[in-house]
Structures are given as C-alpha cells and as structure tokens.
Design goal:
Layout: E1 3-8, H1 10-15, E2 16-26, H2 30-37, E3 41-42, E4 47-51, E5 54-58, E6 61-62, E7 80-83, H3 86-98, E8 102-111, E9 114-124, H4 127-145
Antiparallel strand pairs: 1-8, 2-7, 2-9, 3-6, 4-5, 5-7, 8-9
Subcellular location: Cytoplasm
GO molecular function, one term: RNA binding
Protein name: SsrA-binding protein
Length: about 150
C-alpha cells in the first residue's frame, strides 16, 4: 500500500528552508480519523513544540465529524501528541535550541492505514530569499508557457 496525502502545508516551503524531514505518528480519536478521511483537516498556522520530552502539534484544525456523537475533550484545534522515539525527540530538541531551527508540519497522510505527519526541521527564510523564490517560480512558469 502506498501513501495517500490528506493535507499539505504549502506555505512552509515558502517561509522556511527545510533541512530534514521526519515521519511521526499522531494520537487521535475515532471521530478525528473519520474527519481526516473526509479531508476536513488543515495544517495552516499549526506548529510543533517539545515539552517535557514529548512532542506536540498545536493549532492543527480537524473539523468535528458531523455523524458522530459528541465526545468530551475533543475540540477542533486541541493540542495533539506526536509519536516519536525518545532519541529522536532529544536530537530534535538539541537542534532546535542550539541551531535556532523550527519544527514545521509539512504534510498529513495515510501510510499503510495509519495517519502520519511529516515534520520538517527548517530555518526561517529572510525576505530577500522569499523574493528570489518568487522570481524562480515566475521564470519557470514563463519557460513552461514559452512566453519569454
């Protein structure tokens, strides 16, 4: 079985230079899984924090599943725990603190029936880097349409 992409954070590649990618699992409830299967999820504005040797994603919006009964404690923008090995979390925490890098959620997808989150370890781009990215994109678009 391959992977089926549910949601992507397109702004992450524009705002950050991604140095490394890591795959992580998520702790979710049943209605949340059904909402993810219906693609009612957004990674816009979400970010990852490390607290007490555990990794969490904040502000990831998963719409309430309309056909499920209400389950207490399940909010749309609640903090969700990420499943990573302790060594991975320690290494990420060191890199974030020492090298001033950020942990960014890149995409959410199904892999072998499980929901996975791709995390990017990245460095924020400066304004001139963003302008250069826009120039490259426009040039590629012009070459593609042959309107030089």
């Amino acid at each position: 079985m391959g992977e089926m992409i549910i949601a992507q954070n397109k702004k992450a590649y524009f705002n950050y230079e991604i140095l490394e990618k890591i795959e992580a699992g998520l702790v979710l409830s049943g209605p949340e899984i059904k909402s993810i299967r219906a693609r009612d999820v957004s990674l816009e504005g979400s970010f990852i924090l490390i607290r007490k040797d555990e990794c969490f994603i904040l502000n990831m919006h998963i719409k309430k599943y309309e056909y499920a009964n209400y389950v207490a404690g399940i909010e749309e923008d609640r903090t969700r725990k990420l499943l990573l090995h302790r060594k991975q979390i320690k290494r990420l925490e060191e890199e974030v603190k020492l090298k001033k890098l950020a942990l960014i959620p890149l995409k959410l997808y199904f892999k072998d029936g499980l929901v996975k989150l791709e995390i990017g370890l990245g460095k924020g781009k400066k304004l001139y880097d963003k302008r250069e990215t826009i120039k490259k994109r426009d040039l590629e678009r012009k070459i593609k349409t042959n309107k030089y």
